[in-house]
Input
Amino acid sequence: MNVLAEAGGNNPLIPHPAEMAIGGFAFLFVLFFVGRMLVPRIQKTLADRAEAIEGGLKKAADAQKEAQQALDEYREQLVEARHEAARLREEAREQGAQIKAELREEAQAEARRLIEAAHAQIEADRQQAFAQLRAEIGRLSTDLAGRIVGESLEDEARQRRVVDRFLEELESDARQAVR
Amino acid sequence: MSAAPLAAEEFQAPGLNLFEWPALVSGAEWFNKPALLAFLAALLVIVLCFAAFSRPKLVPRGMQAFGEYAYEFVREQCARPFLGKDSDRWMPLLFSMFLFVLVMNLFGSVIFIQFPVMSLIGYPAILALGVWVMVLFLGMKHQGPWGFFKNIMFPPGLPGWMYVLVAPIEFASTVILRHVTHAVRLFATMMAGHLIIALFSEVGWHFLFVELSPLGAPLGVLGVLMTIALTAFELFIQALQAYVFAMLTAMFINDALHPAH
Output
């Protein structure tokens, strides 16, 4: 009852114009200082922060991508290097084989040459020996003949003539014997 | 406060006289305690925001961190659900409104001040009126003067005869009533909360100090305990209503920018 009686003259649901004016002004102050001046500042700061964080993330992603790229590159290079090494090994083997073959050929040629030289030497030695032998045999024969026939064949020219004759006879005998 | 402590015989529940304030200065009838509190609230909000945001750093500290927490709360909880990508454009209004209403409400739980200014209908009414005018303007600007009302009154997908019923109801509800309740909801919750706390503290005061009696004392203790419990509850309601007020504003703005589905 009391409440209603008091409410009679002053309905709490009817806004008082002075209250509205004061509230309106007070809020306009807030709107101007906070809404107009300060909120844009914090919005800018928040946007800057988001950008900084996104920038950091992007930088990290870029770095990772770069590292991945470098890794791929290295791997590729490694594969290439392996191929290259295999190729070089193969080449070296071929070259080695070739060198071996060449060396063998050279050695064979050298051996042949040596053998030929040896043959030639032997032939020459034989000729020499034959010549010496011939002279020796001549001398021995004359000595022998001289002793046998008692005739000194001191004279060189005669001696030789006799030896030559003797030898020719020997040779012709030998030839006839061969025939 | 009001009823005769001198007479002191009978308990008298506090009434609507709680919401009538004499002028603080004679000659300026309008300048009473709530008016002073309204300016104080505005000043407090401005000073706090200056402390927080006047020179914002990329890495927030102290007041700025606190202010950003409040800002992000309003943006994520009030603005984003309704306005989405348009949120940032409307945050100056919504953030100012939330803080102003919050401080005005919280004054009800601050000792020595102990009066939620929003429990006087004039204060929420002027805010709701401002939102109403702005929403009508925005609606007519974005949907055209005819399209705005057409979209409200003739939602698509109903049988023709239904519009006889729907159109006036939608018009009254969307264009008028929801803006009235926008103000009344805030006013009524604040007023009721203030009345209830005043009632229980009056019970405590009356039965423990004015008229201590063996029968009355337990009642007085109950009154004090209830006052404490309800003040805690009021703190929650005061914050909640500030949030609801800002959130509804965001919803109205969105309805004006884009026709309801």
